[in-house]
Amino acid sequence: MTSSLHLIRYTKLCDWAALRRALEKALPEHLEVRDEYGMLALHWAATEKNIPVGMLDVLLDLYPDGAKVLSTAGYLPLHLAIMAGASMARVQRYIAAYPQGITTVAPSGHSAFELWETKIRLDTRTLKRGEGLHSAQSALVWGKAMISDLLKVTPQSPSLRRRRGDLLSRAESASALPITLTDDPVREWDWLDVQRRLTLHGPEVARERDDRGRLLLHGASRAPIEIFDAILRANPLAVRAKTRSGLLPLHMAVRQHASPRRLQRLLDAYPGSLYEETYNGDTPLEWADRVLLDPMALDVLRKGQRSPLHKPSTD
């Protein structure tokens, strides 16, 4: 896979840490490359309503004209951001980059404001899971719009293929981007199944580790809050457990852009976790800088750092 397409891949995976490292070496040429659906990294970023604002700013600063690009299916990044339910602060950034986007009509026939008024939200998870799967193309992801309506592939003429190849070559010659991650990837659990297993089998479920040494709590920042709390109650010592890469649940929560409430729960359960390092020597606060953590969530960590109860013992 080319370095340019890695930007799209990291964005689709919401691997903000890897994307940030890649963008540090990126040039506008990298951001100009589209995937088979005619989508830029910015289009995929727009499908994530909670993309870190700082990350969105970097994408737009590097290639502001990306806000003008229509996907093969006819969507601007602005359309996708509104459909996904992005905050007004995020939507305004797309508008600032391309004010005419307000009057550009989406394939559904809606203007940007009309998309906002529908209150229908894009099912981003289903869109990504069904991408490329023939059997899933009829899955509904936005009102009556199917995956095949949002992700369209059109045959490319030889001239278009050459142009795309030229863009890839220019991007490749500009710089080499990192292609591997040494830390633990985020794992997705079926949280309803987890809740059922906790009910049937009790705390033992919360003590089970996978092949990377991860407990349920390591991924629970994406679980509904009641399941998150149930996992923490079932195994309160999990806040001190490290994966094989040395990651505590707090490290993983930061990486997953957990809510301030979840971060506070983890800090209250183990104040010292704020100072624990991974095997690469990173504390949760250092990870927060890497992934451009939301300011409110970052404030929870910084307040914890200032609290005398959270300072490590000097004994």
Automatic annotation (TrEMBL):
Signal peptide: none annotated. One of its GO terms (biological process) is actin filament bundle assembly. GO terms for molecular function: actin filament binding. It comes from the Eukaryota. GO terms for cellular component: cytoplasm. Keywords: ANK repeat, Repeat. The keyword Nucleotide-binding does not apply. InterPro entries: Ankyrin_rpt-contain_sf, Espin/Espin-like. The keyword Metal-binding does not apply. PANTHER family: ESPIN, FORKED, ISOFORM F. This is Uncharacterized protein.
